[in-house]
Amino acid sequence: MSRRPVIGLCAAIEQVRYGAWEEPADMLPHSYSAAVQRAGGMALLLPPDPAVADHPEDVLEAVDGLVLAGGGDIGPASYGEDAWPETTGVNPARDEFEIALARAAVERDMPVLGICRGMQLLNVALGGTLVQHLPEAVGHDHHRSTPGSFDDHEVELRQGSLIARTTGREREPVKSHHHQGVGRIGRGLVVSGHADDGLVEAIEVPDRRFVLGVLWHPEEDEASRVIGALVDEARARTAGAVP
């Protein structure tokens, strides 16, 4: 029996309160690791590490797939812009760490999935930019109408794309919670999903086996096939089915 594929989950550093304690913690909602485990993978939390920013292969040698998870806004300095007043929760150490991992993982054709912030991070890592506050661009706040609560809508998927093959649908019901999105698309990426308001909701690298970014939160939907597809691709690699 082949071993379970190890999926690295990029974590945030957040001030948290538990029991009698309040302190910084390496944090990621349990829904991410639970989704990986349901799909037969082993979840490995990856906190920001300054040394790894210079040597991302040290981490990538230990995992079979990579999830760039949600969280605070990406620092606009990463894509050559000044911060807007609405840009918050920036952690430059996390940005540097994850950008290095994303670039190296794409280069070695490792399975990569970017979720929400992670999709934006993937775009920035490959030379793209972000829209810092979507209500200014799309004229509404329906993608994060209530902080702390997910909004439900549908995404139209490009026929024949990786995300369409993954979901088996032309329109995917999704859960979103974000106020930023992609601007200029990064090198090698193509757009494969849009919301009805025209917002880019999915991007992928067609000359890689599985490099995908989605602006929604598949970890919050047990019926979603997205995280399971990443685990399946990583499993194929560990079993030697993918060179």
Structure description:
The chain has one domain: Class I glutamine amidotransferase (GATase) domain (Rossmann fold, 3-Layer(aba) Sandwich), CATH 3.40.50. It is 28% helix and 26% strand. It has eight helices and 13 strands. It has helices at residues 30-38, 50-54, 57-60, 92-107, 117-125, 134-138, 162-167, 226-238, and strands spanning 6-10, 12-18, 21-27, 42-46, 65-68, 112-115, 130-131, 151-157, 171-176, 181-182, 190-195, 200-204, 211-214. The protein has a nine-stranded mixed β-sheet with strand order 4-1-5-6-13-12-11-8-9, with helices on both faces. Strands 2-3 form a two-stranded antiparallel sheet. Helix 4 (92-107) packs across helix 5 (117-125). The radius of gyration is 17 Å and the shape is globular. 42% of the residues are buried. The model has no long low-confidence stretch (mean pLDDT 91).
CATH architecture: 3-Layer(aba) Sandwich
The whole-angstrom Rg is 17 Å
- Largest beta-sheet characterization: 9 strands, mixed
Shape: globular
CATH top level label: Alpha Beta
Number of domains: 1
